[in-house]
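Protein modeling request. Please complete all fields; requests missing the sequence field cannot be processed.
Requester role: graduate student
Desired output: 3D structure, token encoding
Chains: 1
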Amino acid sequence: MPFVRPALPRVIAGMVSALGASLAALGIPRVLQHLVDGPLAQGARTGDTAALWGAMGLVLLLGLAEAGLILVRRSLVMLPGTNIESSMRMVLFRHLQDLPVAFHDRWAGGQLLSRSMSDLGLLRRWIVFGLLQLVVSFATVIIGVGVLAATTGWLGFVYLVGAIPVTVLAFRFSRRYRTISRRSQDQAGDLATRVEESVHGIRVLKAFGRGRDALATFTGEAEKLRTTELAKARAQAQVNVALTLIPELTLAVCLAIGAWQASQGTITVGALTAFFATAAVINGPVVDLGMTLSMTLNARTAVDRFFDVITTANPLTDPEDPITPADPHGHVVLRDVTFRYDDAKDPVLEHVDLDLPVGTTTALVGLTGSGKSTLAMLIPRLYDVTGGTVEIDGVDVRRMTRADVRRNVAVAFEDPTLFSASVRENVLLGVDDATPGALKEELLAEALDVAQAHFAANLPQGVETRIGEEGLSLSGGQRQRLALARAIAARPKVLVLDDPLSALDVTTEEAVTARLREVLHGTTTLVIAHRPSTVALADRVAVLQDGRITAVGTHSDLLATDPHYRYVISSLEGDAAQHGIGQLTEPAIDTDLTPDLDDDEATGARL
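Delivered output (607 residues):
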């Protein structure tokens, strides 16, 4: 109702117009009765046809009124129907943007896509056509049957008796069809998810020659949906047969009774003609009842699926009385932090204490699965701590608005996500829209320079080049550098780097880090380190072991005093050697990822 309320006057006006059209249609049989019993009978005896032409003119007038009112109905409801669909889609997308990362971890993209597109399209079609058809059909049947019962006596009551099994069948159909409809729309969402995954992973499928396996899986999902759609069609066909057959059989009985009554003189030929003309008007909505009910039930399922998402509460809300640090400078402190994922038995982080002084670079190291990335996500409040506090400049991030937190904290992820937009739009994503144009250009140039993303200038349209969905037309190193440039351009007080340079060679990484220190002087930086070279470039190192911070110090001090740290570093060195990445003393350059002209020309060809 909140979405429909603004359009309600036009929808109601459309209903009134549609009902007026039905009343005009029901008025024609009354004119026919008068025509048969009056002008036709009298004209046959006297040869006077003037009254006949008058009755015919009235029928024509009623027909034109019906057509005109149908046209008015369409013009009234078409615009509000699209407005309702658009407003619901915008609210859904806005809510999806607001919901936390944990929600999107649970929900498949295809399910959300089907809810925002096909489900809302079903709802719009129902509002424009199904809702009016449902209301007007019931009104037409009730009024028509009432007229028949009042004017034709037993014939009307016989027709009314025939409506009883129709009502029972419609009720049973609605209960069965609603279950099938929900299953169908859920399976359509699963199929959309399968397509989305296959498209995003097309390079992997091709590289491993698994296209046939993906096709087999997709075929299985599609076959399930096809089976369900056939069940829907079968259920609708069965009810349509009944809704067509029962009224026709009822009319056959009424014809026999009416013919006998006319022969006995208890009913006029005109009344009998009016009865069947009225029944013809009523039969249309009755026969279409199966289609109208199925459309209504599909719309009901679409609404349920829409509100499955809309009613999902966001646990990461802004406080009623938010606190904004008076002089933000980026001092981050984690105090006794504990975190566990929803429904997880054991915590990922437990009693973590970590101080990130202003302007320092801290490397966070640990074995795989120790909770490094999870800890990094707590600082920008992508997740909320289960226990303890995360503070920025002495204020718990839960006491600040999310906008304030993320204005001060920028994140660059190991797996960079770029959008189907230009290089400029991707890099300036975190820059305030109110920033003057000249300053934006300065931030763009500086960010690209710091991230060693000079290749952008050699793209076909330079920084105006659209890089395609998720930036897959670029190499891995190029995507990472643009994602890092995006974080730099935001000019944050706190910079969280979740191993964002893993696809770069050590020399480029060192150059990026050196420039970061120059440009972001005073910025507090937390780096999730997966390579020894990254660790050596940090001011201090924090060791995360089994969800706890076990040691904090300089790289050399920890090598001398902490056995677990030495083990972690040796593991990182082993991984680096295994992947052909140079050691601390012998950096090797990955020429494929170095931004030379050949690589940029190849990128331009891909674009």
